[in-house]
Amino acid sequence: MTNAPPPPSTAAQSAREILTRLHEVMAARTNAQSKLNQVVGIIGECLHSEVCSIYLLRDGALELYATRGLKQEAVHVTRLGLGEGLVGTIAEQIETLNLDEAAAHPDFSYRPETGEELFHSFAGVPIIRRERAVGVLCVQHSDPRRYEEIEIETLQTVAMVLSELIANADLVDTAARTDAAAADQSAQRLTGQKLVDGMGAGVAVFHQPRITIEHTVADDTEAERHRVYAAFDKMREQIDRMASQAEFGVGGEHEEVLETYKMFAYDEGWSRRINEAIDSGLTAEAAIERVQQRTRMRMRQIDDPLLRDRMHDLEDLSNRLIRIVSGQMGTAAQMGLRQDSILIARNLGPAELLEYDRRRLKGVVLEEGSLTAHVIIVARAMGVPVIGRVRDVRTSIREGDALLLDAGAGTVQVRPTPAVQEAFDAKLEISQKRRANLAALRDLPAVTKDGVPIELMINAGLREDVAALDLTGARGIGLFRTEFQFLVSATLPQRERQQRLYRDVLDAAGERPVIFRTVDIGGDKALPYMNLDDTAQEENPAMGWRALRLALEREGLLKVQARALMEAAAGRTLNVMFPMVSEPWEYEAARDLFVKQRAWLAQHNKKLPVAIRYGAMLEVPGLVETLDLMLPHLDFLSIGTNDLTQFLFAADRAHPRLAERYDWLSPTVMRYLSRVVKLVAGTKVQLGVCGEMGGRPLEAMALLGIGIERLSITPAGVGPVKAMIRSLDLAALRADIPAMLARPAADPRGQYLAWAKAHGVDLGE
């Protein structure tokens, strides 16, 4: 008869019991192998597990070092490469596995010498040292069952203590791995994802030195608890001080980001988990690291990028807290940047970035990072170029290395050769000259050579984006994405907060129009604080329960936004646009909701807009079939080329193999858009384009050619597109476009490029 899993009450005591006994083992005067043999016996006994094994990294492979339950003759014989088998997968991915049937896992690798065919269930955790897996601790059982969460946490706690034991015994070879990589003195080119555009050159500066926890088992639990309390107080004081001192010149959404960050600093759940880890017998440093490891593992399992970014904020605070409690507060920011620098970090929190001298900080390179991370919003406001998702950055770059960062290209040149430096300098000079030339166009009208005025507007979503109106000379905001406020908030923004944002945007825009798109959330823009479980497993989120579909179902959400928009626009004209309209009734239902909310506000003597103009986004291709029914009820129509194109081609624009496969200038897209222009012609409806297509000079030229005369684009695209417009003979283009659509070339992009070159159109290339 096999052993049954321990009851939760027994399991809850296991960590403390195991640590107490391990402390005695570590203090004993025996060799490392003897200690490991005792460790597997203690863990197996306390967790009532038939098998407990320890694998350690030696000579690039994971070697079975000690076991209880497997055949002893397999010790120092069984070896698994990184990524090989369950053990190798745990070490390579630095993740936990908990399986009721190990053999069913696709990475399972059977080793007959171990005798493990008798066992079904399997759980394993990485043994981590300096953020690298140096081994694996695992347990097995003959009965198919998943280990309890408290048992997994016990294993993770024990793995921390094992890390200290094996490091002191010099049993792992991580030093050899890192030293070999560090010995490389040659030039390198690393690639990553553009997060904030720009170029910068400087020396490599690591944000913080690694803090290695040398003591994991606590002698006095209460003393450790008081150390953590004191560290929390100090950390919160630092965060409050930095948030109050942050200056950007204008108010912006980054201020809300910092408020969210402060909320995490005061989160009671986080401090409670650290206290629970201390209760298990860990020191303050080890307890924080224990919770941090759990956070990292959860981050790897989270598909939602926004929720994952909030976990990054918590990780940033953990780093700060562990530096405080260990007395190792030195970061590159505290030491001060002595020269132009490129900051290197695994990740950064928004408050940490604010500590740096912006005169010296020329760029940031992150091992992780994403476009929606809080630190990126702050970096954009600071004007600091950033790239993320750069692999092996800590082993490829050394402190003080010369770096050339080109965020637009997603590259960082490490220890560049003179030729690479020269090419970078030339590109930077051209970029600066081009920016200066485009800046000179700011106050000039967007009018073609033959006198046709084109309305150039910008897309925005944050308060600080409005400043781009003055910087670019744009005529207004053709698309204000109201969901950004929802995406960067930790809780659902209340009406007063929404109203304040909309009023600030309108005030900053002055007489220039602003078109507010109602909230486009759901699908691939999930909010962690909204219960959208019915959409959590959508196979095609971009075509799922999102945007207007979701807003019409969640009427309260749209009602609150309607009132906030109307009160913010009191005394002015309000322009409202509904996203992802599929059929006329959806547009009519949304407009009717706004009409009713306007009546409600009037009954309550609220100040109202002088007029409300209603529009729709054309993103769903099928809407064109009923567009004639909608046009009499529309004031304006905006073509969202991003979603429209992926729906036309049934191709996910985020898919790496499909991203460049379907061209905006293909006959499919151009003929479709030309059809829309003809349908709208002769009506009162203003037609425009508000997708990325309009922000590229060649594509914008093609749009003008088929009759589009209103573009809403990224602020960075205004200058180049305006230069194109002022060099274009629009009548000549419109004379040739029908033939180009009727008889498209095999290479349509080449066809448009050849026309532009023949007619002297400035494409900035």
Automatic annotation (TrEMBL):
<dbReference type="InterPro" id="IPR015813">
    <property type="entry name" value="Pyrv/PenolPyrv_kinase-like_dom"/>
</dbReference>
<dbReference type="Pfam" id="PF01590">
    <property type="entry name" value="GAF"/>
</dbReference>
<dbReference type="InterPro" id="IPR006318">
    <property type="entry name" value="PTS_EI-like"/>
</dbReference>
<dbReference type="InterPro" id="IPR040442">
    <property type="entry name" value="Pyrv_kinase-like_dom_sf"/>
</dbReference>
<dbReference type="InterPro" id="IPR029016">
    <property type="entry name" value="GAF-like_dom_sf"/>
</dbReference>
<keyword id="KW-0762">Sugar transport</keyword>
<dbReference type="InterPro" id="IPR023151">
    <property type="entry name" value="PEP_util_CS"/>
</dbReference>
<keyword id="KW-0460">Magnesium</keyword>
<dbReference type="Pfam" id="PF00391">
    <property type="entry name" value="PEP-utilizers"/>
</dbReference>
<keyword id="KW-0479">Metal-binding</keyword>
<dbReference type="InterPro" id="IPR003018">
    <property type="entry name" value="GAF"/>
</dbReference>
<keyword id="KW-0418">Kinase</keyword>
<dbReference type="InterPro" id="IPR036618">
    <property type="entry name" value="PtsI_HPr-bd_sf"/>
</dbReference>
<feature type="domain" description="GAF">
    <location>
        <begin position="31"/>
        <end position="176"/>
    </location>
</feature>
<dbReference type="InterPro" id="IPR008279">
    <property type="entry name" value="PEP-util_enz_mobile_dom"/>
</dbReference>
<comment type="similarity">
    <text>Belongs to the PEP-utilizing enzyme family.</text>
</comment>
<dbReference type="Pfam" id="PF05524">
    <property type="entry name" value="PEP-utilisers_N"/>
</dbReference>
<keyword id="KW-0808">Transferase</keyword>
<keyword id="KW-0813">Transport</keyword>
<dbReference type="InterPro" id="IPR008731">
    <property type="entry name" value="PTS_EIN"/>
</dbReference>
<dbReference type="InterPro" id="IPR036637">
    <property type="entry name" value="Phosphohistidine_dom_sf"/>
</dbReference>
<dbReference type="InterPro" id="IPR050499">
    <property type="entry name" value="PEP-utilizing_PTS_enzyme"/>
</dbReference>
<protein>
    <recommendedName>
        <fullName>phosphoenolpyruvate--protein phosphotransferase</fullName>
        <ecNumber>2.7.3.9</ecNumber>
    </recommendedName>
</protein>
<keyword id="KW-0963">Cytoplasm</keyword>
<dbReference type="Pfam" id="PF02896">
    <property type="entry name" value="PEP-utilizers_C"/>
</dbReference>
<keyword id="KW-0598">Phosphotransferase system</keyword>
<dbReference type="InterPro" id="IPR000121">
    <property type="entry name" value="PEP_util_C"/>
</dbReference>
